[in-house]
Amino acid sequence: MNRSLALALAIATALGNAACGKTEPPQQKATVQDVKKEAKELAASVNDLARQTKEAFVANAEKELADMNGKIEDLKSRASKAQGEAKVKLDQAVAQLERQRQNATEKLKAIKDASGDAWQDMRAGFTSAWEEMKKAYDTARES
Asked: What averages of pLDDT result for each successive group of 10 residues across the chain (143 residues)?
């Protein structure tokens, strides 16, 4: 990627000098091998960035799921102390949240196991499951 940047700067400098009437000494032309090498390096950089992005997404999702686990445990505690209809509602909410947590956990595992860019397609599914779980938690917390 640094070579690409250097190449872009060299082109910009040459264009700027040409516009000002300055001339640079002719540079060696790039060979097909040079271009192929640059393309491979750029592809490797893009793949590395995609891997880092996936790792960051997974790490953040794992942290959010761990936080949600604590919140579900708090609701379970509230449910154990509640009585009557409030207890029934909290027990139902906890059961729903546990199903949703399991669904989100499975989607996250699929993302972890995905290769290449396939994880990005799965990202929307996880995000949707996560948003539904957050809404369900907010509703349960308010009751």
From this structure: 48 54 62 78 72 92 96 96 95 97 96 89 93 94 85
Contact 110, 122 (CB under 8 A): yes
Half-sphere CA count of 45, side-chain side, radius 13 A: 11
SS3 label, residue 73: helix
State the Cα–Cα distance between residues 97 and 69, nearest whole angstrom: 9
Give SS3 for 135: helix
DSSP single-letter state for residue 82: -
Cβ neighbors of 116 (< 8 A, separation 6 or more) are 50
